[in-house]
What does this fold into?
Amino acid sequence: MKQIAGAASEVDHLEFGMFGANGTGTSMSKVPERWYPTWENNRDLALAAEAAGLDFHIPFARWRGYGGESDPLGITFDPIAWAASLLALTKKITVFTTIHAPFTHPIIAAKHLATLDQIGPGRVGLNVVSGWHGEEAAMFGIEQREHDERYEYTKEWLDVMLKLWSKDRPFHHEGRFFNLRDVIGSPKPRGGKVKLMSAGASSAGRSFAIGHCDQLFTILVSLEACRAEVAKVKEAAARADRRVDVYTAACVVCRPTRKEAEEYYEHISKEMADEAAVDNALRLLGLDCRSFTPEFYAMFRSRFAASHGHYPIVGDPSDVAEGLRSVRDAGVRGLSLCFMNFADELPYFRDEVMPRLVDMGVRRPAGG
It folds into this structure.
């Protein structure tokens, strides 16, 4: 994969993480080797990821799958209980939890997160979701708000949580969505708050993340588009006197030869695609999410089968290392690695790709 000519980046260490291991991963493929979430699998993966020097771990929050033969994400562990267990097992890696603001009261969420910080001080992240999945909202008996209003709700939700963490005396909150009396709570996160992340490609989603979060998680469509988006995010954050890092995800298929890798990607994304599940995912995204146009989703259909639309980095170890350097050079700070099977593929990536990235200056040496 070619590096963008003239690309430059302020990022001296591309952070790596796992994404979606508390569920069936990001794939909508019917291959039998697809990741399956058991407690034992998740425990062993978290320890292996930390030992390999990975930086973070992000879970899904899902309550129903996409159907089809494989029913992607039909099984997922609760992300709060999952995060608590992994924080107790690990010592260095940052563990995010994922919370849908419309489904969880901010006082309850604040208590969850402060408790997580007691387990893993300074290693807790919140991926806050404003809610796009209409069928899940219906499960909870919640009327789906208009797109931009969802972020207005989440802003007030977050305001309540941050005030609860910062105030030692009871306070009242009278807002558009919450009317709360004598709010107080303890413990509080030891550093005052936890790391805050929000995904958003729409204007409202991006503005929310830039104004209130530490990280914006976005879909990587192309390297050129990503570099332009990072520049816009950095400029907007600077105007607000804030720092916001851009995180994204990639579907990584690394094999000893480029031919093997490309053939396997073709196999998972086309030959074994769960077409019914992909159809359902595209329908839901088209109905409930304004990140991209319906034409975009159709154009990248095979990406959804392989990895829920995430950017493919496919090839031998040198190809994959070059692809990751290009992502870093587009200005991305953190990259969630999406493998078809985390346990099977992480060791090869660790042994063959990560040392190359240290030599290339994309990542610092372990402990560096």
